[in-house]
């Protein structure tokens, strides 16, 4: 297993981190503990020393299981990461109670890497105002938190605001070869690198999408090396960035664990030819985009309540990756019915202000047609 050193805090972390959000489950929704234990044991025995969980993962099952599963391993050699659930924190008392709960569940009296979870502008302001940020700083002074950081889900300007607010020990962002201009993105990577703040990466394969590419695109990778997994290209692209110190993978099956261990034991940086292949794959995927919506939200709010950018995001993601199940769930379950494309009344207000000059009304009709067709397939 290859390791990286977080120079600012002097800690050596395994390049591969175990994300504890996707443990295998039984039919009743509970963690398949024997199998999940096997996955963790295999990873740790191969040298993985960064274990990432959170308060809400797997409906609250993840932290208690991780606490139990790690008892057979040397705690001093492991870095446990968990997160303060900002949705549940309205006061310092909330943060105190939750932190103690987490320590109890994880069967530890300190947390190696503690993150303020999933910050966006709203929750960042809320965590400052209610005193939760200052409380976490105090926990670090007490030694109950060894390293303090945050995970992030918003636009780059907010990332810059948060990252430069104080001297963070680390931070966690979504980053992969398709998300270079999404959320913190490449600009966020460079900012963190310039400030000497090490990065932990989530969504390295974009929720599995970059591990299961369409066949005609996969062949670009296979032409160079037919013996390695599609997922390994994403991991190696990330690990070729010097300030990427940990790449989290939510491993569900033993073959995923073994493949990831192989990728990082040892890690081999991408060659120039391989970088060109990654660029070709990214360009091929982007060419499948149905429209050029940037999510700027100039069109919002829609008088009829349609969430125009979200509809287009679902539409474009399905066109790029071809995952029918994900698109159906995103449109018919995750997106509120009142915000779906079929609620458009063709008032044209959105088209008058769209910087991209999109044909929004016609595009929304296409969203409806494509999603209804998808829904009829199964």
Task: Explain what you see.
44% of the residues lie in helices and 14% in strands. It is an alpha/beta fold and 378 residues long. The chain has two domains: 3-280, NADP-dependent oxidoreductase domain (TIM Barrel, Alpha-Beta Barrel), CATH 3.20.20.100; 308-377, no CATH class. Helix 1 (33-45) packs parallel to helix 10. It is globular. It starts with a strand and ends with a helix.
CATH topology of the largest domain: TIM Barrel
Structural class: alpha/beta
Name the shape in a single word.
Answer: globular
Strand order of the largest sheet: 7-6-5-4-3-10-9-8
Can you tell me the residue ranges where pLDDT is under 50 for at least 5 consecutive residues? none
Tell me the number of structural domains.
2
Mean pLDDT: 96
CATH superfamily of the largest domain: NADP-dependent oxidoreductase domain
> Which CATH-level-2 architecture of the largest domain?
Alpha-Beta Barrel
Instruction: Bin the strand percentage.
Output: 5-15%
What's a quick, concise take on this entry?
This protein has 15 helices and 10 strands.
């Amino acid at each position: 297993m290859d390791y990286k050193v977080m120079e600012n805090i002097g800690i050596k972390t395994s390049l591969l981190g175990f994300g504890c959000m996707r443990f295998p489950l039984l039919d009743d929704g509970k963690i398949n503990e024997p199998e999940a234990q096997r996955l963790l044991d295999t990873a740790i025995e191969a040298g993985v020393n960064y274990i990432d969980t959170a308060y809400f993962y797997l409906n609250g099952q993840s932290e208690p299981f991780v606490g139990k599963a790690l008892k057979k391993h040397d705690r001093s050699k492991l870095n446990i990461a968990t997160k303060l659930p900002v949705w549940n924190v309205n006061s310092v008392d909330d943060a105190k109670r939750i932190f103690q709960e987490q320590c109890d569940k994880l069967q530890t009296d300190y947390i190696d890497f503690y993150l303020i979870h999933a910050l966006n502008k709203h929750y960042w302001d809320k965590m400052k105002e209610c005193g939760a940020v200052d409380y976490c700083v105090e926990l670090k002074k007490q030694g109950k938190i060894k390293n303090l950081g945050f995970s992030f889900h918003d636009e780059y300007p907010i990332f810059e605001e948060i990252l430069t607010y104080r001297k963070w020990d680390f931070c966690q962002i979504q980053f992969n070869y398709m998300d270079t201009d999404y959320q913190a993105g490449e600009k966020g990577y460079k900012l963190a690198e310039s400030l000497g703040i090490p990065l932990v990466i989530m969504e390295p394969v974009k929720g599995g999408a970059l591990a299961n590419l369409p066949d005609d695109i996969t062949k670009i990778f296979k032409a160079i090396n037919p013996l390695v997994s599609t997922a390994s290209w994403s991991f190696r692209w990330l690990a070729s960035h010097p300030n990427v110190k940990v790449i989290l993978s939510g491993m569900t099956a033993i073959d995923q664990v073994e493949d990831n261990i192989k990728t990082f034991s040892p890690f081999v940086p991408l060659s120039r030819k391989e970088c060109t292949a990654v660029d070709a794959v990214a360009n091929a995927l982007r060419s499948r985009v149905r429209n050029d919506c940037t999510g700027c939200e100039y069109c919002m709010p829609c008088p009829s309540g349609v969430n125009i950018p979200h509809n287009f995001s679902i539409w474009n993601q399905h066109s790029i990756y071809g995952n029918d199940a994900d698109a159906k769930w995103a449109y018919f379950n995750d997106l509120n019915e009142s915000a779906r494309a079929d609620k458009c009344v063709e008032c044209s207000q959105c088209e008058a202000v769209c910087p991209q000059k999109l044909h929004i009304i016609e595009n929304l009709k296409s969203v409806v047609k494509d999603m209804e067709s998808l829904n009829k397939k199964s």
